[in-house]
Amino acid sequence: MPALMRQLAGLGGCGRPVRLDGHRTEHSVNTTTGEIGPVIHHLNSTDLAAGHLLVRCNNRRTTRCPACAETYRRDTYHLITAGLTGGKGTPATVTAHPRVFATFTAPGFGAVHNRPTTGRCRCGTQHPEGATELGTPLNPDTYDYRAAVLWNAHAGKIWARFSIYLRREIAKRAGLTQRQFRDHGRVSFAKVAEYQKRGAVHFHAVIRLDGPEGGDTPPPAWATPDLLADAIRAAVAATEIPGPVLDGTAHTFAFGKQLDIRTIRTADFTAGTTLTERAVAAYIAKYATKGAETATGTLDRPVKLLAELAHLDLTEHARRLVRTCWTLGARPELEELRLRAWAHMLGFRGHFSTKTRRYSTTLGALREARAAWRKAQATTGTPPLPTPGDDTEPTTLVLAHWTFAGVGLTPGERWLTEALTPAPGTEGEPTHG
């Protein structure tokens, strides 16, 4: 029992670990002659208390694994924070660079139930917060489900086009050509995708204006938050991409009219309503672990057969969005969009969180640092359980073979996991909302 509890505690609360069968052997290596020495340590999965090597699932979705999703959220928080305040390889001088927090919305596809700041919904009702009808169409028969699904499918391309136009607009305001702008400044950003209740994707982004080498170099003298915000508005207005022609109707896609841009200030939470680095990082990280299932009540895994919908507890709005993806996915001219494979995501197949290379650290670097810290904390004589792919000391030869044996915990293992205190995550995040 103590050995099983230690193995389960190492999962940090993960409820859907991957179970692996196999073995791992470590040999010492003579660095002078290259000769392989005796066995230092041998591990066989059958010798473990759980009968398998258990590896965290590392799923980012809260609905699939809350523990792993929390780790992903905290990593995203630190990634965003490093690009705003410095740290983890990013200089602290980035706090003096022009920085804005922008929200890019989707266009309208039909009137939906909402909670306006003043007055009532168009249906004449003052909906309470959390009402199930919020985000659903007032008239589902006239709601443009096709355009809604196709917008999600093209959202990634729209963002890519916007990022090109943004650099062009900044250069124009600085009196430079795009080629000259590369020698004076660089745009760095980190963004996440969020689903609105109506099922349309929109983006939250931290956009920073740096010197030519990124955060390590100061921005040019003409770079200001106002110039950056003005360039964003112009780039959004110019961004439009052509879509498919379906049944004689040509589709074009662009961002919605609602665009929110706010300058990020350096201050603490006690500074009132000032938009701070920590507030922005916490807000963005919150959406890094959520998908369409959180906002619209749809699915958190792919649909294999359309008949599955009849046995699932979905809202009618979500059901129609998934059906539209499935129907459009059968059309040859839309094959590249892979709408059936991404029907559970309502057509969106892009990454939920992306960043430019020079914005800050990477999620991979944060995971490696955490693994190194945990390895250093191993104080017993027994080496910590391995994760397939982990590097060891350069003087050690590792021979390993692992095969997939399943996913999840036995009822007894689950009971023990829930009884154990989850391993602490990354420290340093404020507990403010």
Tally of separate helices: 10
Spatial shape: globular
Radius of gyration: 25 Å
The termini sit apart by: 39 Å
- Largest beta-sheet details: 5 strands, antiparallel
Low-confidence stretches: 268-273, 423-433
What is the strand content? Answer: 15-25%
Could you estimate the helical fraction of the residues in percent?
Answer: 25-40%
Main sheet: strand order: 9-4-6-5-10
The helix-and-strand class reads alpha+beta
Beta strands, count: 11
Helices and strands, in N-to-C order?
A: HEEEHEHHEEHEEEHHHEHEH
* Mean pLDDT value: 85
Concise overview:
The protein has 10 helices and 11 strands. The protein has 433 residues and is an alpha+beta fold. Strand 5 (186-195) and strand 6 form a beta hairpin.
What does this structure look like?
By secondary structure, the protein is an alpha+beta fold. It has ten helices and eleven strands. The chain is 30% helix and 19% strand. The longest helix is centred in the middle third of the chain and has 29 residues, at 145-173.
